[in-house]
Amino acid sequence: MKTTAHRATTPVMWKRTVVGTAAVAAVVLTLAGCSSTGGKKATQTDATAKSYTIAMVTHGPPGDTFWDLIRKGAQAAADKDNVKLQYSSQNSGPAQATLVQSAIDSKVDGLAVTMSFADAMTPAITQAVKAGIPTTVFNAGINNWKATGALSYFGQDEKVSGVAAGKRLASEGAKNVICVVQEQGSVALEDRCAGVKEGLTTGSVENLNVTGTDLPSVESSITAKLQQDPSVDAIITLGAPIALTAVKSLSAANSKAKVATFDTNSELVGAIQNGSVEWAVDQQPYLQGYLAVDALWLDLSNKNVIGGGQSTLTGPSFIDKSNIAAVAEYAKRGTR
């Protein structure tokens, strides 16, 4: 009797087991679909996601270490977002505006641009926005970007950064400072020097205009100024390559002036470590490039806007011997 009863109930139990297993499998599959680690990946990596083309137009010279960092950040965002990045640059405002017009004519999906030459760039950016091309501004143009209708701005306030640098120079006892401008007519660079003058309440600041694309001539110009005026006790440069060149000028002129700078690169990290450059004002160029592209993708794919109509600041902060070790690792891999 016990055997018979057992045989009678076995098919029912088997059926329940199959149903139970199927239910468990369904739950597992559902959970897998919801899992952040085992389910469907982010939209930008989906093979069916739309691929956008974004043009980045800057005023940075090709091969410049600062602009290399911006481009790397932009490319990192483009790779993440399945974006085709078209990068171009020109050192004059009209030429840069022509690049923007080319981007408009080619009907790109988005535009990321600098506004160092605001007079030339404002009409070009305004035209892009009117053409329905969402646009972000980065690095230069904090006082002008809103008037163009651009979505967002990513960078530092150059005047504020300059004031901070001037105050630091004052706290370190600087009295006679040279501010080396490597690109005449650049609003951003002139704002930096103006800020340094405002912040340095203990002495005077004189602008020295040089041609930043010709480093031997930069070295000669700084050396001549130091020889002409031995009382110069500090040099503030507006780019890492210029700072490294100024260090050479100190030796040539037998000057004891100290060198500080805006912006960094991997070689400058070593100069801060060995003490030949005192400190650098960092505006995080990699981050600027990254955010300028990523913000466009967010707008194009999900109508998100970063900044709430206000500038998103990426600086300033100071890099010196107290924190250089934390930055050095990233500088070696080319992202700081």
TrEMBL record:
It comes from the Bacteria. Its main location: other. Pfam families: Peripla_BP_4. Residues 62-298 form the Periplasmic binding protein domain. InterPro entries: Bact_Solute-Bind_Prot2, Peripla_BP_I, SBP_2_dom. It is found in: Cell envelope. Coiled coil: none annotated. Transmembrane segments: none annotated. PANTHER family: ABC TRANSPORTER PERIPLASMIC-BINDING PROTEIN YPHF (PTHR30036:SF7), D-XYLOSE-BINDING PERIPLASMIC PROTEIN (PTHR30036). Belongs to the bacterial solute-binding protein 2 family. This is Monosaccharide ABC transporter substrate-binding protein, CUT2 family (TC 3.A.1.2.-).
